[in-house]
Design goal:
The protein contains no helices and 18 strands. The chain is mostly beta strands. The radius of gyration is 28 Å and the shape is elongated.
Amino acid sequence: TLTITGTTFGYESPFNTVTIGEDGAVCLIIDWMPTEITCTMPALANGQHTVYVQTKDNGMADASGVSPLLVDFTITGASPLVGSHQGGTKIKIAGTGFGDCSNVVFNVGSEHTCVVDEGGCTSTEVSCTVTKTATMHRIQNTGRHFKFGPGYVWEPATLIVRPGDEVRWSWNLPVPQEGTGIAVHSTSSASTNEYDGMGFNSQTKSSKGNL
């Protein structure tokens, strides 16, 4: 929460705003009084940020005598830098501004999160365990077959799936006909359509369904 003190702010109005930094990140107003404003700060990058107060009746407040808002939030190192793609690696992250880690999320790339270990957080160092984030892949019968027309080709046609990921098939034949339908099941190879008896299986063919 940010508290701003000054004079002639007026009273709360939909035309009054508090923004932070040159990009105009909005500070959500909690309370607006003639001499004091409180608002909830947005996420801000490391560095200095000027606070701007815009009022309906008095325009932009003069903040030239106020020091910029300082955000001290950095990562200066991490160790080790090599681990399993499946997660489970324990690492230490050094930096500043972590606080008690209750409002900080540590991502390792786009597919992993580092979960803070119990008692493993200080403002400058964190001990955490890398956890793989499962990816949900969606496949639909939205492609067009050269002979049978729309609805008879999967999109995407190929998919790279890693352990822990999930795959969801959805299908809906645009013009279902008697005797036609779609079933999804695992096969022993790409050259056969027969169920291998071991993996996933949607059972009976249907014109609409999901797995």
